[in-house]
Amino acid sequence: MDYLVRAIDKDAQVRIFACSSKNMVEKSREIHNTSKTATAALGRSLTAAALMSENLKNEADTLTLNIKGDGDIGQIVVTAKANGIVKGYVNNPMADADIRESDGKLDVGKIVGKGTLTVVADQGLKEPYIGKVELISGEIAEDLANYFYRSDQVPSVVSLGVLVDVDYSVKAAGGFILQLMPGADDECISKIEQNISKIKSITSMLDEGMTPEQIVEAVMSGFEIKILDKKGIGFNCDCSFEKVEDSLISLGKGELKAIIEEDGRAEVMCHFCNSKYNFSKEELTSILESME
Questions:
Q1: Mainly localized where (predicted)?
Q2: Which end of the chain lies in a sparser environment, N or C, as judged by fewer CB atoms within 10 Å?
C-alpha cells in the first residue's frame, strides 16, 4: 500500500514528510503509457504533490503543480487533494532520453528542459495562493527545493525517486521533503547536513524495501522524532459525465450551438485518465435548452 508519514523532532526544529508511491506511479504509467523517462518525470511530480498535500487542511482543498518546460515532454500537470489522492498527465508521454552517463540515471531534466514551476494552492479563500519560480534543473526535486526557498522562504531538502524496471514497469517510487522550522539552530542544521551526506540515494533506499518510517529514521538519525500522521495515498481521477457536462455549459451558448450544427456530436477526453465522454446531438441540444 502506498502511504505517507509526517514527523517532527522533539525540539520542533525539523519536520519531514516521507512516502512510498510505487502503485500510484505504476497506475499513472499504465494509464498514460509513458516512456521510462516520462514515467520518472510524472512519477516524481505525483510523489511530490502527494507529499505536499499533507499541508492542506480542509477536505475540499487542492494543490496543483504545473511544470512548463521547453523539453520534449511539454507540460506536466499534477493535482492533489487533502486526502492524498492525486492525478496527473504530461503533454507528450512518449518523450524519452538516453540514460545519463555521469551517474547512470534517467535524464528527466533533459526532457523537461528550461521553463517554470507554478504551485497553486486552493484552500477555499477568495483567491488561490500562486507561487512561480524558474526551473533550475528540470529534475523536479531540485526545482521544488528552490521553490520552497524562494517562494516560501523555507530551507528544504527534497528527494524524489522512481525506479523503472527492464519491462518499463515501476519497480519502486517514493520520496521525502525535509524542512527546517523557524529557529532551527546551527547544531541541528549541521546534523541534518551530515545525515544527508551519508544516506543512500532515495531510489536505493526504496529498492531495498525501506518503509517511509525507516527513511525518516535514516534522514533524521540522531534526532528524537515523533510520527504525527500516517495516511494512504493513490492515483484516482474524479472526472464524471456531470463534470464534463458542466465544462460544455461553460463554453457558452454560441460555441455549443456551433458544435451541434457543425459536428452533431461531441467527444470529450479527460487528460488525467484518458476517459472519453460522448455526447449525442440530442444530449447537446438538451444541454443547450437548459441554458435558456
A1: cytoplasm
A2: C
